[in-house]
Each structure stands twice: as C-alpha cells, then as structure tokens.
C-alpha cells in the first residue's frame, strides 16, 4: 500500500471540504452581521418594491438593535384643562437652542430639561416636545408650547410623569425590518417616509398609571404616523390610537 | 520528513473541518437576535363554545299573512320558526332575479288578501351574507345589494307563487322568477298560522297581537370568566402584561399596546388593540367572518346570537351580535351591560371588543309565566308614547336584571326601536297564570289547565276572573311549550281550500342543519320539551 499517496489524496479532499465549509460559514456570518449590526441597509428586493410602489425614504434608518424594556409610570396630564399662560412670553426661536430654552423657561415650566423638541410633531402654532427617558422620547408624553404670530411662546400644556419603572429588557427589532413590513403591507403608493425614531408608546387609559412599550415611530411626509411595537412588530396608527384613547374614558 | 509534514497537515485539516462543521451546525450561537412573531401566540385555553357564520344569520321575525287581513308573527327559536325556516325555506333555491320598482304591486292589498310569508331582516343584510342562509343565484348588481325583507306569496286570482326580495334601498325590489316554491309550500307555511296568536297591523306597519301572548320570566344562575382567563386568551405574553386600576375602579391589563378593561364588577370587558389600516380593500362581509373567528378564539358564544345589521357606514367599522334566550333577544340597559357582543374592526382586524363575561347555566332556576300585553292595551300604550312618530319596530324582548347570588332574571318586555336606532322598553309583561284581558270570543279550545308545576303558582297576577278562558291564546304555561308565541293544541284544519296529500314536503336532508339545528341544540333543554316533539307529527298529520 502506498501510504504516502493515500495521504496526498486525503489532504486534497480535506482541503476541498474545508474550503466548502469555510465558504458556507462566511456566508452565514455575513448574513447575520447584515441583519443585526448593519441594519441600516434595506435588502435589494425591498428597494425594488419601494421603487414599484413609488415609496421614498427621506430619513436615515437608525442603526442598532438596543435592548429596551417597557415603562410603567404615573402620568399627570393637564390635557383636559386649558393651556397655562406663561408669565413672561419668550422668543419662539429659543426652541432650537435647548440650553437657552431651559434657561428662559426653567423657572416657569417644571422639568423642562427632561423634554426634547420634536420637529416632526409640530402643529400650527404649537411646538411639541417629548419627555425623554434614557435619551429616548415617550411619544405619549408631551409638552406643548403655543406660540403666537409675533413669534412669542405664550402658553403651554404639559404631561408630567413620575415614578418611571422599567420592566424586563428585550432586544428590539431593527429599523430596516420595520420599514420593510410597512412597505410590504401598510404604505400607500407614493408615500414618503419622513422620519423614523425609536421611543416609547402605549395606549393611554383613564388612570394615573400608564404603560408604554418600546416602539418605532414612523412618520410619513403627509403627517400620518405609524407606531410599530419594537418587540412584537405589531403596527398601529396614530388615528386608531387616539380614537380608542378618547373612547375609553367615555365608556 | 515529507511524510511527517503530510501527516501534520492532514491532522490539521481534519480538525479544522470538524470545527467548521460544528459552527455551521449550531450557526454561531449568540449572534442572532430573537425576533418574536405571531407564532409565539400561545392560545392557552379555549373559552366558551364556538359557532359559525351560518348560525348567526337568521331573520328577526317571520310574518305569516293568512288572507282576510289576518296575520301572525313568529319569533326565532320557536318550534314553528324552525319548521318553516330551517326545515322548509332554507332548502329552496331562488334564482333569476329581476330588478324592478317597488310600486309594481300594491303591497297593502297583497298583505291583506294574499296568503304568504315575510322574512324580516331589520336594517337589511347583505346578499353575500344572506347566501349563508338561503340558496340564491343572481347577477352582480343583486349580489352587492342589501335585503331587508323577503316576501313570498300566492297571488289571489291565479295559482301562482311570487317571491320578492326588498332592497334596503327604497323602492327597489328583486323578483325571483325561478324560485322552486309551490303553491302547496306557501299553504303549508300559512297553515301553521292557524295555531298561532293573531296580530293586526297598525297604520305604520307595526304588528300588534290581538290578545295578550304568553311569555316566560326566567331566572338563570350564571358563572363568569375570570379577568385573568380573558387576559390569557387575549394577550401575547402574560409576563409582559401589567395590571392596575383606573380612576373609575375598573381593572386594566395592558402590555403597552393592547388594553383590556374589566368593568361592571368583572362582568364586562372592553378590549382595545389599535391597528393600522392597510391600503388593500377588503369586502364588508370580511368583517363578519373575522368577528366570528375572533369570538370563537377569545371567549366564545354563550347561547344563540344573531348578527345585527346596521347602516353601510357603520358596517365598515362595527359588527354587533345580539344574544337570544329562548326566542327573544336580550335588551340591556346602560346600568347593566349584557346580551351583546360588539366589535370594532379595521379591514378585518379587530381593534375593539366589548362583551359580557357571563355564561348562563344550561338550566333555568325558575320559570314563571307572564303575559305580554296585546290588543287595545298595547295599542294605547304605544299611542301614548311620546316619540310614537319615530317608532320603526315593535318587538318582544327580555330585559336582563342582575339578581343577588350570581343569578340573572329575564323579564319579557315590549320594546320599540326608534328611527335613531335606540331601543326603548315600552311595557313590561304582566305576571300571572292567565291572560290579563280575557275577552276572547271563542271558547272553543280546551284549556289544559292541569298545572303540574307549582312553583309559579304564587305569582299574583292582575285582578282578573274567568280562569282559563284565554286558552284560545295558548296552552297552559305549565306545558312550557313555546314560551312566547303560544301553541294551540292541534285542531282540525278548517280553512284549507285544497287538501294536501302528504304532510311533509321533501327536504334536502343536509341543508337545514346549517342554521337551525345548532340553535335549537344550544337552547336550554327545558325549552324543547317532549310535549313539543310529540306535537310535531300531530300537526303534520292534522294537515294531511
């Protein structure tokens, strides 16, 4: 028996096997890296689908899938009362400068340093700020600053939260996945995705205690808002939420 | 030397391939994010009974026209309703629909003079759903329409049967020119009317019984689902669900997106699950199918329910089912919500779900006879009703009253429905063994006053004499047969022009169980006493 030749044959065949396995492994790993770390990329076929439905993406897809928990908190809202007047109206341009705004309004609006201006939620004559938790907005909890035509902030309406407690942390789904599911089923032709942001959102009940879950908020160019549960991936719209929110207290 | 190097290389390669195979097989644990999907939805325990779309679609009432301006009304769940609708009409085919104007016939004359039967669906039902009940073939225009009444009658001068489907749209009717109904069929249906209380029609089309009709006050023990059972049934993952109380003291469960509000001391729930609208269009009937499926999975059905129709705009969003007990619908009040299941949907996705957590026991605790007023007494009350002009329908129903010790009482009442859809209780049935206004003209029928049940005896009725003279109206309460439209003992048919040779028309054996068989089975057992079953063959014998 020619032992040397047998070894050569075995070496060659194992080399080929290793190359094959190595290739498979490399494909697998690169796929997983794509899905998780580099989630800001949409798969090519979805980009094609976007083209077909004439959906355009005018926002950057945030990367990363952090671990977030749901929040339980006490909400004190003065939504039902009329807006409070500011003693000293301030210049509306301050909204773009957080430090200056906090300085100007800090004495008049409690907790204002915990709120962050949200450009996309603006309505006519109203700036909307969201309460921030660990750097992420709570979409249900707002501070609304009303300004007049002469560019002065004159009054405000504030939702305040207390005793925020966290539940179990879970990894959220990536923004690309959220956008893909919206494109596939929910978005109409010609929609423009204007903003996508990770925060907290929940149904508001007629109670002090409220629960909010990690949620991706996707805003369209025409103002329509989709809330996508960042753990289960379920989709709700702004309109549906407000309706049920206003109906439950009445019921 | 060369050989040693080769051996070493070979060993390295073998080990490497083993390592790579291992990594591939277990695909680099720790790299993947766990994504939860709908498949995680654990449906813990099925609650309640399931049902199908077929069994929630049936007419609210049947009206028999017996000629000479004599009419009678038959309510769902009664023996005659079963016999006419589920054993006879359901097996027929309706084809060749021709659209025409409602003015082609003088309907008042038809009502007065022609024998026939009307199937009424208040507020209309879409033809698509009606096809679950009846076999129909028509063109697309017809299939998209809504029907609020079906009228089958025999023309007076000729021996011809005409079948009209009335569209909810005013002044539009469809005539089914190829319906396989014969003159004998219609005479057959109308023949049943002989045994039933007579009704007369008011100027605006309400049917009022000439004599008081018998009904039964019922008391049922009940059980309730616990809020936790509903929570397990409705939420993804109970570990992420928080529970707290709201300002009104209701218990709330939420996972941040869904909400479950338990109201009324744990007897009513309101579930909300906001959803997004999709761009696709779903047919309206899709909502009904989705609702039935949803209820099957989340809580089930307590007894028979009927799909309540509504206006087209409402139909896009809401689906309501009303509970029937015995033969009457249950009416609730603002103070005590019970007896209906209401869902809000967005294109086939349930976003709100309101229902009772009560499950009635299969046996009543007690039954007590009552009399629903008829004749002038009812008519006068109706005339005195301040919103008389807005009344669109008058029907008997059961008012649910919560008693102590987990019991529910159902009191028969007359209810009026107003143009705005509100339902108002007009009159409560009178207690007593005998009808309150005993001025019947014929004492021909026997009285059957051998009460074998004694528990009702203490029911102090209105002061009235002449025990048993009202029996022209119905059998004695003790028989328990047909708690509302009382059943006369079979007597010789006198008003049949032509003798009918064999009693029962041939029926396709399988079609009738879709709607009716189950309903009957779901009713409490006491409701289908032996007496009734024995009467059925007797009746058909009487006809032959």
From TrEMBL, chain A:
UniProt GO cellular component terms: membrane
Domain Regulatory protein YycH-like: 68-231
Pfam families in alphabetical order: YycI (PF09648)
Top-level division of the source organism's lineage: Bacteria
InterPro entries, alphabetized: YycI-like
Protein name: Regulatory protein YycH-like domain-containing protein
From TrEMBL, chain B:
Taxonomic source organism: Paenibacillus pinisoli
Name of the protein in question: Regulatory protein YycH domain-containing protein
Extent of Basic and acidic residues compositional bias: 449-459
InterPro entries: YycH, YycH/YycI_2
Region of interest called Disordered, as start-end residue ranges on this chain: 429-544
Top-level division of the source organism's lineage: Bacteria
Amino acid composition bias (Acidic residues), ranges on this chain: 500-513, 519-536
Domain spans labelled Regulatory protein YycH: 3-424
Bilayer-crossing regions: none
């Amino acid at each position: 028996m020619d032992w040397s030749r047998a070894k050569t044959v075995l070496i060659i065949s194992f080399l080929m096997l290793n190359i094959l396995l190595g290739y498979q492994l490399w494909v697998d790993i690169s796929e997983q890296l794509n899905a998780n770390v580099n989630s800001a990329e949409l798969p090519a076929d979805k980009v094609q689908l976007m083209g077909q439905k004439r959906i355009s993406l005018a926002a950057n897809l945030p990367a990363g899938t952090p671990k977030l928990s749901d929040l339980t908190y006490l909400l004190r809202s003065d939504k039902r009362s009329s807006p409070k007047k500011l003693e000293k109206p301030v210049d509306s341009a301050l909204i773009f400068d957080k430090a200056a705004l906090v300085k100007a309004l800090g004495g008049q609006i409690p907790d204002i340093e915990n709120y962050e201006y949200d450009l996309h939620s603006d309505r006519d004559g109203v700036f909307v700020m969201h309460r921030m938790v660990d750097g992420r907005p709570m979409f249900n909890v707002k501070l609304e600053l009303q300004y007049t035509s002469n560019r002065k902030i004159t009054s405000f309406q504030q939702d305040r939260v207390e005793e925020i407690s966290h539940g179990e942390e879970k990894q959220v789904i990536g923004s690309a996945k959220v956008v893909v599911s919206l494109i596939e089923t929910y978005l109409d032709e010609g929609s423009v995705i204007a903003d996508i942001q990770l925060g907290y959102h929940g149904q508001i009940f007629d109670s002090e205690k409220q629960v909010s879950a990690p949620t991706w908020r996707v805003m369209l160019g025409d103002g329509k808002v989709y809330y996508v549960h960042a753990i289960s991936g379920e989709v709700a719209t702004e309109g549906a939420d407000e309706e049920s929110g206003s109906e439950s207290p009445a019921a | 030397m060369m050989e040693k190097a080769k051996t070493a290389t070979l060993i390295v390669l073998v080990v490497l391939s083993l390592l790579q195979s291992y990594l591939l097989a277990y695909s680099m644990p720790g790299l993947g994010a766990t994504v939860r999907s709908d498949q995680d939805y654990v449906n813990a325990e099925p609650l309640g009974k399931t049902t199908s779309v077929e069994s929630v679609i049936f007419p609210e009432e049947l009206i028999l026209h017996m000629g000479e301006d004599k009419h009678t009304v038959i309510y769902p769940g009664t023996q005659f309703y079963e016999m006419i609708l589920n054993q006879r009409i359901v097996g027929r085919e309706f084809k060749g629909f021709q659209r025409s104007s409602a003015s082609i016939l003088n309907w008042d004359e038809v009502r007065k003079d022609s024998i026939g039967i009307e199937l009424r669906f208040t507020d209309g039902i879409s033809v698509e759903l009606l096809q679950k009940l009846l076999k129909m073939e028509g063109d697309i225009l017809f299939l998209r329409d809504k029907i609020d009444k079906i009228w089958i009658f025999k023309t007076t001068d000729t021996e011809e049967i005409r079948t009209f489907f009335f569209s909810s749209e005013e002044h539009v009717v469809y005539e089914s020119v190829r319906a396989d109904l014969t003159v004998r069929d219609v005479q057959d249906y109308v023949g049943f009317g002989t045994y039933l209380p007579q009704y007369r029609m008011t100027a605006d089309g309400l049917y009022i019984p000439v004599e008081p009709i018998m009904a039964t006050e019922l008391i049922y023990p009940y059980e309730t689902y616990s809020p936790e059972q509903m929570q397990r049934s409705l939420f993804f993952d109970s570990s992420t669900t928080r529970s707290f109380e709201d300002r009104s003291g209701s218990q709330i469960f939420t996972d941040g997106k869904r909400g479950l509000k338990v109201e009324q001391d744990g007897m009513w729930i309101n579930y909300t699950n906001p959803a997004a609208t999709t761009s696709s269009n779903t047919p309206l009937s899709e909502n009904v199918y989705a609702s039935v499926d949803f209820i099957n999975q989340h809580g089930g059905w307590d007894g028979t329910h009927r799909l309540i129709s509504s206006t087209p705009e409402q139909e896009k969003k809401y689906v309501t089912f009303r509970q029937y007990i015995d033969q009457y619908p249950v009416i609730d009040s603002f103070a005590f919500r019970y007896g209906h299941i209401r869902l809000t949907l967005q294109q086939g996705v349930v976003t709100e779900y309101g229902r009772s957590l009560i499950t009635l026991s299969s046996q009543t605790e007690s039954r007590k006879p009552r009399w629903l007023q008829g004749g002038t007494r009812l008519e006068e009350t109706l005339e005195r009703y301040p919103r008389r002009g807005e009344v669109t329908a008058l029907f008997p129903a059961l008012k649910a009253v919560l008693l102590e010790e987990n019991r529910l009482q159902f009191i028969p009442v007359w209810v009026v429905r107003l143009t705005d859809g509100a339902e108002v209780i007009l009159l409560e049935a009178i207690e007593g063994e005998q009808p309150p206004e005993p001025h019947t003209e014929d004492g021909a029928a026997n009285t059957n006053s051998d009460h074998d049940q004694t528990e009702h005896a203490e029911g102090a009725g209105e002061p009235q004499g002449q025990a048993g003279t009202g029996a022209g109206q119905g059998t004695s309460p003790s028989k328990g047969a047909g708690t509302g439209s009382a059943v006369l003992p079979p007597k010789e048919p006198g008003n049949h022009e032509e003798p009918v040779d064999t009693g029962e028309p041939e029926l396709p054996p399988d079609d009738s169980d879709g709607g009716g068989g189950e309903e009957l089975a779901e009713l409490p057992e006491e409701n289908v006493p032996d007496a009734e079953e024995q009467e059925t063959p007797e009746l058909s014998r009487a006809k032959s």
